[in-house]
Write a structure and sequence with these properties.
This protein is mostly beta strands. The protein is built from one helix and 16 strands. Strand 8 and strand 9 form a beta hairpin.
Length: about 220
Amino acid sequence: MDKSRNRYGQIRKGKQLKLSELKESTEINITFRLNVREFSFRVKVLAVMGNELITTPIRFKEGVLVFDTKEVILSVWATDESGRSIVWKEVKCDKITHEGRLAYRISSKNEGDYWNRRGAFRVPVNLQGVAQVGFNRKADSVVLKDLSALGYAFTMKGKVEDCIGKPVRLIFDDTKLKTHLTLLGTVVRIDPQANDQYLLGCKLIKENALVSKYVAERQR
């Protein structure tokens, strides 16, 4: 077993990392900003060659997405075993052929840094809600534990070991503050709890002004 990875396929917590220190089969996110919009796609590391990663490509319509790094700002994200995000900036991504198939060759001169989340104050919530994890699973009753402008965490029962990277739609009501919110995120962390419960940490897909307003109200 590859000791650099835990049961959820995430890289182990450590100091700054080079892209080349990631392992085969690690899932990473390629994030890019075009004009004022930000996009993120998950790919898998196929091979590590020197200081470069070979990954699966992002398929778009009938082809593969190609990046012009002069116009598009690229970064690569991964998570360590505690769910903390690591980001590599100023990434170069070229389309190549690897073992007869289209792939990406990714490189960066920079080492990965842990993403600084100190600006996102996390408030405890502890309210009932319903959440759908992935596209092929029914909605489950959950407890929203905490929330910030960047992400949220909730507990639920059931098999969730394979949910890293999957989308989550969570809906809850706060009758005291007369608030109804829908949270759209991606699972980045799973922690087993007692009584067959799991804590799922999620990153919001995009910033939501209503979430920021609610967090501010909870702090009062």
